[in-house]
Design brief:
By secondary structure, this protein is of the alpha+beta class. Helix content is 21%, strand content 32%. Strands 1-3-4-5-2 form a five-stranded mixed β-sheet. The longest helix has 12 residues, at 84-95.
């Protein structure tokens, strides 16, 4: 099972306010794929293992320009206090991209929570 990092949105993932994520790449995903949600998956030191936050099931996958994000999706991303422009600026800053970038929009549900 593949890992998907929720390092920047761990709290939103854990409290259930995040049900959509946008990623660069991830074009191979399909509905019903299962992924291990982890705190972080890159930059781990030798011997470190990812902290598992849960398992998700992909409900829907779409490709779109980041600039087409709706306010409803900003909320689903876990940022109800941000405007679409503020979300795009945050995304672009962290991902080092521009608002016209093509992203993979992934709608998901949690199916397992670690004990």
């Amino acid at each position: 099972m593949r890992n998907m990092s929720f390092n920047l949105t761990e709290q939103q993932f854990l409290d259930g306010s995040k049900t959509v994520t946008r990623r660069l790449g991830w074009e191979f995903l399909r509905s019903n794929d299962r992924l291990r949600a982890v705190r972080k998956s890159r930059g781990l030191k030798r011997g470190e293992h990812p902290v598992v936050l849960g398992v998700i099931r992909v409900k829907r996958v779409d490709r779109e320009q980041l600039r087409n994000i709706s306010w409803v999706d900003v909320i689903a991303e876990g940022f109800p206090r941000l405007t679409t422009a503020e979300f795009m600026a945050l995304f672009c800053k962290h991902m080092k991209c521009q608002p016209d970038v093509m992203v993979t929009r992934i709608e998901f549900e949690k199916v397992e929570v670690p004990q």
